[in-house]
Specification:
The protein is α+β, with helices and mostly antiparallel strands and about 450 residues long. The protein has helices at about 45-55, 100-115, 120-125, 145-150, 205-210, 250-260, 265-270, 315-330, 340-350, 370-375, 390-395, 400-415; strands at about 25-30, 60, 65-70, 70-75, 85, 130-135, 135-140, 170-175, 180-185, 195-200, 215-220, 230-245, 275, 305-310, 330-340, 355-360, 415-430, 435, 455. It contains twelve helices and 19 strands.
Amino acid sequence: MRDMLLAFGLIVFSALTPLPLAAQMVEESLARDPGPLDFIEGEGYEQWILQSLSGDALVGLAPDGRLVPRLAMSWKVLKDGRVQFALRTDAHYTDGSPVGAEDVLWTLRELLRDPKASPTKRAILEGAEAGVENGRPWVRSPKPIGRLLMELARVPIAQQGHPDRGSGPFAFRKEPGAWVFTRRDHFLKPRIEGIRFRLLPDAAGVMAALQKGWLSLGAPATRRQTEVPQTHRLVTQPMQAQLVVWSHVGVGPLQLLERWRRDAFPPQLLALNGHPSRGLWPETLGFEPQAIAANSAAPKGPGLLRLLYPAGDETVEKLLLALRERARRDGFDIQLTPLEQGLLVGRLQQGDFQLACSLVVFDPHPWAVMEYLEPKGPMNFTGWTHPRLAELSAQAQQPGDTAWRELQSLWAKAPAALPLVDFQSVIWVDRRLQVEPSPLGLYFHTPGAAGWRWNAR
């Protein structure tokens, strides 16, 4: 599951002597403890930030979503359907060892072998084979080549035998109360000294730190977004991000949610962050809005709906409270139960829920919605399937194919999930810090944070 937390921030508790901008660390925060850096088992938004800074995938995605070289200088499709990669010779791990084909093979095979491996990465590699020929790694998958390459951008390559060691533009070290990334001699030539994260889950604390200039960047409170301090500027980046609700008790509750989402969220509650969703799949991925086409009528109140959600996310909590108030007008009570993220994911994967919601970030290509549909997709928590799924999936080779419309129509007849709100990322950034916004967010494209720079203005 690709959950997205839009809060960024950090409090620095000591006054430091100003450093030259070139040597100044970017000060950031994490809303949750990501756990140990682990390129095999690590999962979740905060963990992916750690991996994006300290690791390299075979291919990257540019800010506009195009495929670009990363660890692989080039690749070609062989006659038997394998994709073969020519690796860079100037990529090294933190111990100085060069990145080799055996590291690629080990990483991919571990992700397929380890039952605790990241569900997102396992889904990317579902049905895939990997090997080495003439010193070059190759991958073969039942997925369309275009989709496979796009998704491999989310699979950083670890050093053989060391799931915590990557070759990325920043070296990672864990300090007491902080996650620190420092610039490496790397082919992306990072232009900032590094980034320091501290744990700051409280949105009010993030806001205070932003206003006092203790943060290089962060997400302001929704009601205060346009009150940008002189030290910062407002940056808005469109995201393929949605607040999604899954139903394990049929389509009836989703029909109610589809009705309520139209007027549940006051404009002042969303501000610049987003707007109520209209269809079933993200419009930003090229899908036309489509309503649920269920044969039965929506349930009538009074009724009780039990909904699980990730604890500690103030934005989500406020949205769900507004949704609950809207539901009461139709005679329904939504019982909201917050769960720590790991527990929520566990309940979702076990199917132990009536309704459950989370923030989801989609990759910038239509194949991202397959995570809802495919039997082992990381967002298929209800076992959704259809006899024509395999046939249409094979025909959906390019965005805009007729097969996409047919797939969405099949989903619309009995969807297992419904988006409530479409989000974009609204952040304040230090005026001296140059960053490149993208639909992938600040970290997940190439060059990502390695392309940031300080200037004197």
